[in-house]
Automatic annotation (TrEMBL):
Protein name per the record: ABC transporter substrate-binding protein
Presence of the UniProt keyword Membrane in the record: yes
Matching Pfam families: SBP_bac_8
Gene Ontology molecular-function annotations: maltose binding
Alphabetical GO biological process terms: maltodextrin transmembrane transport; maltose transport
Signal peptide: none
Keywords for this protein: Membrane, Signal, Transmembrane, Transmembrane helix, Transport
Database matches in SUPFAM superfamilies: Periplasmic binding protein-like II
Source organism (scientific name): Virgisporangium ochraceum
C-alpha cells in the first residue's frame, strides 16, 4: 500500500513537471505527512482524543471524611484534558447494586467506570457489563494480595482495588474495660458495666452496636458472628455448612443479645434498623460501649480539625474471628468509548499517592501496603497496623455470579434465626443451597 501511494505521488509530481530534486522532496514530504500520524498512537500519552463528555464513574455514595474520592477526581481534572465525574448512587451496598445493574442494562446510559463492591466482580464480568482490565499487562506489584484477588474472576483481572475494608472493634476508653478477645469476652465486659450504678455508666445504654438492618450489612455481621463462634456458612468446596452447633452459637449470641431486657441489653435494639452510618451515630452519641464497624468510621468519629474525638475510643481487631473482607474495585464498562482513558484514570485513583490521600484524609483503607508502612502514617494513625493485620486476616464472601441473590436469601434466614434464638432449620439449608446454585 505504501509503495502504491509513493508511486501515485511520483506520477502526479512527474505529470506536473517537477525537477527530480523537488520531485523527491514532494514524495518524501507527502509520505511523512500521511504515514507518521497513522503509525503514532492518537496522542502521545496513548489515550483516546479527549472529548467534552467527562468520563463517568458510577459509585456508591462517598462516605469518606470530606468526600476524598471527589477531591481526587478534581485533582485529575486539574491535570488532564479529558475530564471525569463521579455519579453518586445510594450508600447502602444493596441499593447501589440495584442502581448499577439498572445503569448497566439501560442502553441510553453512558458509564465508563464502575466502582463495584468486591462481591459483584463475578456477576458484572459474567454479564459482560465490564471488560477484562484493558490495554495490556498491569503492574500489580504493591497492592495487598487479598483485595487484588477480589478483582479476579475466571482467571482474568477485571478491576483494580480502590479501597479495601476490614471491620474493627471500637470500644469506649472512658469505661475502664479491657478490649475483649472473644464474643464471651464482650458479654463479660458488658456485665461489668451492668453492675455499676447508672450514674457511672457514662450514658451507655447498651453493650454493643452494629449493622443488623436487612441489607448486606446483616450478611456481613452474621458471617462474622458465626466465624467468631467457630462455625461457617459456605465451605471452601462450596457447600452450605451452616447447620452446626458453632454456627448456631454465633447466631444465638446476636439473637440473645437483642432479646435481653431493658437494663443495659448486650446489643442496642436499634441495631436492627442501623446501617454503617446509623451505628456510627449511635456510638458517637455515647449510647454503646462497643461497636463493630469499618475503618472509615474512625475518621468520622475524629473529624479533621475537631479538638477531640466525638467520644473517647480506641480500636482492636474483631473479637474471636476474622472480619469479612470488604471494599470496592474500579472496573471499565464494556460500553465505554474510551477504555484507555478509563484505565489511566483507574491507575491514577489506585496509585500510591492517591491511596495515601484516601487513607490519610478520608479514612478509606488503602489497597497498597506501602501506605501502612509509612512512618508518618503510623505515627499519626496508630490504628494503621491493627487495620493492616485485620485486612490480612479477613475472609472474602463467596465468589459467585449470583452472590447478591444468595446474600438476600441469607439475610432472610438470619432474620428468622434472630427471632428464634439462633435456630437454623433444614428448610433454611435448602433455601441457601438453592440460592448459592442460582436457583430461586
Ligand atoms: C462496606 C464494604 C462492602 C460491604 C458493605 C456492607 O461498604 O466495603 O464490601 O459489602 O460495607 O454494608
Amino acid at each position: 500500500m505504501v509503495r502504491r501511494f509513493a508511486t501515485a505521488v511520483w506520477e502526479w509530481a512527474r505529470r506536473h513537471r517537477f525537477r527530480s530534486g523537488v520531485l523527491t522532496g514532494v514524495v518524501v514530504g507527502a509520505l511523512v505527512a500521511v504515514l507518521v500520524p497513522a503509525l503514532l498512537p492518537d496522542r502521545p500519552d496513548g489515550l483516546e482524543p479527549p472529548t467534552d463528555d467527562p468520563l463517568i464513574i458510577l459509585s456508591g455514595l462517598d462516605e469518606s471524611d470530606d468526600k476524598q474520592r471527589e477531591i481526587l477526581v478534581a485533582q485529575w481534572n486539574a491535570t488532564h484534558r479529558q475530564q471525569a465525574r463521579i455519579v453518586s448512587l445510594p450508600a447502602r451496598a444493596d441499593d447501589a447494586h440495584a442502581a448499577m445493574v439498572e445503569y448497566a442494562q439501560a442502553t441510553a446510559n453512558r458509564v465508563d467506570i464502575y466502582n463495584l463492591d468486591v462481591t459483584w466482580t463475578a456477576e458484572f464480568a459474567a454479564a459482560r457489563y465490564i471488560v477484562p482490565f484493558p490495554g495490556g499487562p498491569v503492574d500489580r506489584s504493591g497492592f495487598l494480595e487479598k483485595p487484588l484477588l477480589t478483582c479476579e474472576w475466571n482467571g482474568k483481572l477485571w478491576a483494580l482495588p480502590f479501597n479495601t475494608d476490614a471491620a474493627l472493634l471500637y470500644h469506649r476508653t472512658d469505661l475502664g474495660l479491657e478490649p475483649p478477645g472473644s464474643l464471651t469476652g464482650v458479654r463479660a465486659a458488658i456485665d461489668q458495666v451492668r453492675q455499676r450504678p447508672v450514674a457511672e455508666r457514662r450514658g451507655v445504654e447498651a453493650g454493643y452496636v452494629s449493622q443488623l438492618r436487612a441489607y448486606e450489612g446483616l450478611t456481613v455481621n452474621a458471617l462474622e458472628a458465626i466465624w467468631a463462634a467457630g462455625g461457617d456458612v459456605v465451605s471452601r468446596d462450596n457447600r452450605i455448612v451452616i447447620k452446626s452447633e458453632e454456627a448456631a452459637a454465633g447466631l444465638r449470641w446476636l439473637a440473645a443479645g437483642l432479646a435481653e431486657p431493658g437494663n443495659l441489653p448486650l446489643i442496642l435494639p436499634g441495631s436492627r434498623g442501623f446501617d454503617e452510618r446509623g451505628s456510627t451515630d449511635a456510638f458517637a452519641e455515647g449510647r454503646a460501649a462497643f461497636m463493630r464497624n469499618w475503618p472509615v468510621a474512625y475518621r468520622l468519629l475524629t473529624p479533621e480539625g475537631a479538638p477531640a474525638p466525638r467520644v473517647p475510643f480506641a480500636v482492636t481487631p474483631l473479637p474471636g474471628g476474622p472480619s469479612v473482607l470488604g471494599g470496592q474495585n474500579l472496573a471499565v464498562s464494556s460500553r465505554s468509548a474510551r477504555p484507555r482513558a478509563a484505565r489511566a484514570l483507574i491507575e491514577y485513583l489506585t496509585s500510591e499517592r492517591s491511596q495515601q490521600i484516601l487513607f490519610e484524609r478520608g479514612g478509606l483503607a488503602a489497597t497498597r501496603r506501602i501506605v501502612y508502612l509509612d512512618a508518618r502514617v503510623q505515627e499519626r494513625y496508630p490504628y494503621a497496623q491493627t487495620l493492616l493485620e485485620s485486612i490480612e486476616a479477613a475472609r472474602p464472601r463467596p465468589m459467585t455470579t449470583n452472590y447478591v441473590a444468595f446474600s438476600q436469601v441469607f439475610q432472610g434466614v438470619v432474620r428468622e434465626a434472630l427471632d428464634d434464638n439462633g435456630r437454623i432449620t433444614d428448610d433454611h439449608v435448602q433455601r441457601l443451597e438453592a440460592a448459592l446454585r442460582g436457583r430461586r
